[in-house]
Amino acid sequence: MSVGIAADERVARVGLLKRVLLKPELGALLGAVLVFVFFAALSDVFRSPGGVANWLDPASTLGIMAVAVALLMIGGHFDLSAGVQTGTAAITSGLLTTYYGVNTWAALAISLALVLAIGFVNGYLVVRTGLPSFIITLGTFLMLQGLNLGITKLVTNTVQINNFDKIIGYDVLHAVFASEITIAGADFQIAILWWVVATIAGSWLLLRTRFGNWIFATGGDANAGRNVGVPVARTTITLFMITSLAAWFVGTTQIVRLTSIQAQAGFGQELIYIVAAVIGGCLLTGGFGSAVGASIGALIFGMTSQGIVYAGWDADWFKFFLGAMLLLAVLANQYIRRFAELSRR
pLDDT band at residue 12, thresholds of 50, 70 and 90? Predict the structure, then answer.
């Protein structure tokens, strides 16, 4: 009798361990707590309301993109053009309004349609050719990089678009994309609120909808998914378009907040988005991850980037910390993937 009870207890403990380890956001949450405690011990400013506002600011726009990139990675793909698409969206809106006098809302609609079309083309080419998304979107990245620079120079004779705050309707745009909320004497960007909304929406999509099941099935085993009726092609294209939608939102936020945009905006950010998603628990092989985990990864990024400054260290150390966190996350995720495979047997 006692042997049977002991066996049941062991099974229960193993089951609990599986449920904990297979939560992709738990490791990221632990990492975020450790990062916060570390920098809070080094700097009083870091844990002050003003300090919190400062490190939540970069985390917010990164987090919006990280959620979309995480969905795509769970679906088994990468988008190396995600970063440069933020610049494409902002440059399109900026040129149409400030240089060609296009109605503000029409310009925003055109820039949105443009990046959605880019996302559609990326997804369509991945589905139709069977080539790795890494290669397809690398080509898109290079083309958009050249177009952003070339067209901006051609129209403005510089590499920057200015005076976005002079357009009609700017006050409304500022209220939506760049206003601030004062809490405890500190100004928090409204992008933080949109980040929370994006995280909730991404989690709901993944965990409460049929489309979320399709995402996991597509990333886990596309062929098996097709055999049970999952529309793999449609799911893949939609995920690329969701990433483009997030890029439009972040690009619009940047140009509204700064009132100008550089032609090089977004270059190199795509790797940061992927790093945030991986730190948050997304597997590079697809089929595993969460929106909450990706947001926590973005939070770790924000705390580290500002924490190093508050600690009085050279900012160059940030890249070291980022690389170390990525390496640890990949190793941890590899262990989790193996554990997940064993748990299914």
Answer: very low
Give the whole-angstrom CA distance, residue 307 versus residue 54. 10
Task: Give the whole-angstrom CA distance, residue 194 versus residue 293.
Answer: 17
Half-sphere exposure of 223 (CA within 13 A, CB side): 1
pLDDT tens, position by position, 244-257: 999 999 999 999 99
For the chain, the residue count is 345
231 vs 227: CA distance, rounded Å: 10
Q: What is the pTM of this model?
A: 0.89
* CA distance linking residue 128 with residue 145, whole number of Å: 24
On whether the CB atoms of residues 298 and 55 are closer than 8 A, the answer is no
65: buried, middle or exposed (CB in 10 Å: 19+, 13-18, 0-12)?
buried
The torsion angles phi and psi of 52, rounded to 5 degrees, stand at: -60, -45
> What token pair was written down for 201?
């929406």
Does residue 73 contact residue 129 with C-beta atoms inside 8 Å?
no
